[in-house]
Amino acid sequence: MTTQDDTKAHAQGDHPAKVAAKRTPVDLAIRYGFLSLMAGLILFFSVASEGFVSPYSAVFIFQSVAITGILALGVTFTLVVDGFDLSIGSTATSALMLSAYVMVVLEMGAVAAVLACLVMGALVGLVNGLLIVKMKVPDLLATLGMMFLLIGLQRIPTEGRSIATGMKMPNGETTVGKFSPDFLWLGRHRFDFFIDNLIPVSVLILLGVAVLCWVFLELTRHGRLMYAIGSNQRAAALAGTNVNRYKILAYMISGVLASVGGILLAARLGRGDLASGNNLLLDSVAAALIGFAVLGAAKPNAFGTAVGALFVGVLLQGLTMMNAPYYTQDFVKGSVLVVALVFTFALTGRRRGSNH
Amino acid sequence: MKLTRRLTLGLAGGIAALAAGIAPVMAAEMPAPFDNAGEVKIALVRYLSTGDFFQAYLSGVESQAAAIGVDLRVFDSRQDAALQADMVDQAIALGVDGIIIQHGLTEAMQDAAQRALDAGIKVVAFDVDVENPAIPQIEQSDYLLGKLALEQAIKDNGDTWDAGYVYVAGIAPLDRRDVAWQDVKAANPGIRELAMFGTLDNPIANSVANQARSVLQANPGITVVFAPYDEFAKGVKIAVDEAGMTDQVDIYSADVSTADIAAMREPGSAWVATVATNPSVVGEVSVRSLAMLLAGEDPGPNVVVPPTLITQAFLNDNGITNMEELSAKMPQFAHADVSVPAWIPLPAR
């Protein structure tokens, strides 16, 4: 039993030292409380709502959180280096507009659209990072500025219109470009997995990104150094870490992942919708913060973020199937976040207090 | 502060004079004050401005103002109710002859509108009730919008079906469309509302798609979805496509845009009909009603711009791909015979 738990905990990237600590009921509550809550919810919805238990349902949940999940993994990186990225939502919607612009107005293909978005995401992250480490602008303020800048910027080329094939541009020309089928494939194709047409591309991308982020943060030296910077920047610098470079890297990863989210959004919608992306930002930050509570990590971590996003997805799917109106969903989302934060700060803090 | 304001006023005045100088001298048969239309200044004071609808509304106001030859000023308060009231005062200070109030909050605009009237300025209001009998209300009939879509649904599906309904309470146009839904449900007991959902989390279509998919899974018997807002309809369509229920579910909605036309015309699309008022036509009607007031005519207390039913079949039969083609093929969509005295020149099409 202990061995099994040890390996599991280790695989999920916790410090072996913590596992060795004596297990009290409080410890158990902190470590597994959140996961049991999720299991309980799934059980509840399975009983309360007909049709909740099905492979489709599971896939739906994954798909509905794919975009916010990917954004949340990005914001996790900035949280790890003790920063914050408020611009992810608007980076995603800028990527949405940019991909539509490249294909519909410039009449280029899927590859060009995807590349343009990724480059834009990296550039946004680079500028964020430079503002923060070189110009010494506090992270919240720098990325807040970037958020507004992007919300405005994405509207300038079309003078505030959404982009669709056949729309009239400000110069009076009618657009003739189309969303490339290869691009739409990203949002609409489903792979066969036991059942035909089951798993959407976006879910696979979410899983892939989550695994990559987890490996990077938990198993590589770079990830460890990022955590070191997050817990004590000065100490990390004195130990010879290039703090600035890692911080910029974290913001660039965040920007690129946000643009991946935007690409998937565009591929699903099939048009360049104007949106501020504020809901994407809030949902993904919530997922990352909920992630603090998973397995009692009390720190940003990729596994927790993914579970946090899924948790919100399970709740929303279940509530919607039970005909709960949208405002109760916001209420429930908020409650989950508060409970998760209590798990993280109050309970973990008490354990630390008693153990050290 | 005082200096800046004076400077701004001076500058604005200068620009106005310049604009008046270059404005085309319009036909002399227009009644006063439009015999010298370039001297007439009107202001559009906006509360909402971001989005395709408001962009199209503005272009309608601009093109009708240009057709008459009046000098148009646009004030944009970007959803700041207090600022919008201040902007009405700015327009008064600027000495405009007429004001169009576009959206806003009743409480904030009531006094400002009265101040404008007191200053001898004519005022019309679009989609905001300023509770003043001297101010005509321009409105697109949201009730009719919902009603026409539902009548089409009954025509296509009979009067017995299980429905999903997308609605968010507290949004004025959606509330008015909801009245139509309640009426139709009451009149047709065979129509059952199995699920009501909806959200305005943006991007709206994406959030609604997530909800709609859960709803369709929980209620596989749904055959009609009434989604009286095009962003809702788009979301439902994504969900229907993803659930592979395209053949089973029909979507009836309100509003239309170029992107909506493309979505309705996709092969086998579940989105079969929408009902819409052309926002730029509403903009044109707003300017014409104000012009009538300025010329001493009465557009009536409620100026309603009627909506038009647009079906998937009509779009396919006529090969329509965008709003311009829709206007060309559907004259009642391109122009509303509302507030059209013979002397007002219509925008060129």
Describe this structure in words.
By secondary structure, chain A is mainly alpha-helical. Helix content of chain A is 73%, strand content 3%. Chain A has one domain (24-347): Orthogonal Bundle (ABC transporter involved in vitamin B12 uptake, BtuC), CATH 1.10.3470. Chain A has helices at residues 2-11, 16-20, 25-48, 55-80, 88-105, 110-133, 139-153, 181-188, 201-219, 221-231, 233-238, 243-269, 278-293, 302-321, 326-355, and strands spanning 190-193, 195-200. A two-stranded antiparallel sheet of chain A has the order 1-2. In chain A, β1 (190-193) and β2 (195-200) form a beta hairpin. In chain A, α6 (110-133) runs antiparallel to α7 (139-153). The longest helix of chain A has 30 residues, at 326-355. The two termini of chain A are 26 Å apart. Chain B has 13 helices and twelve strands. Chain B is α/β, with parallel strands linked by helices. In chain B, α2 (52-68) runs parallel beside α10 (279-294). Chain B is elongated. The interface between A and B is large, with 49 and 44 residues.
Structure in a nutshell:
The complex is a heterodimer of chains A (356) and B (349). By secondary structure, chain A is mainly alpha-helical.
Unreliable stretches covering 5 or more consecutive residues of chain A: 1-14, 16-20
If helices are DSSP runs of H or I spanning 4 or more residues, what is the number of helices of chain A? 15
Report the sheet with the most strands of chain A, covering strand number, pairing sense and barrel closure: 2 strands, antiparallel
Helix count of chain B, per DSSP?
13
- Which strand order does the major sheet of chain B show? 2-1-3-4-5-11
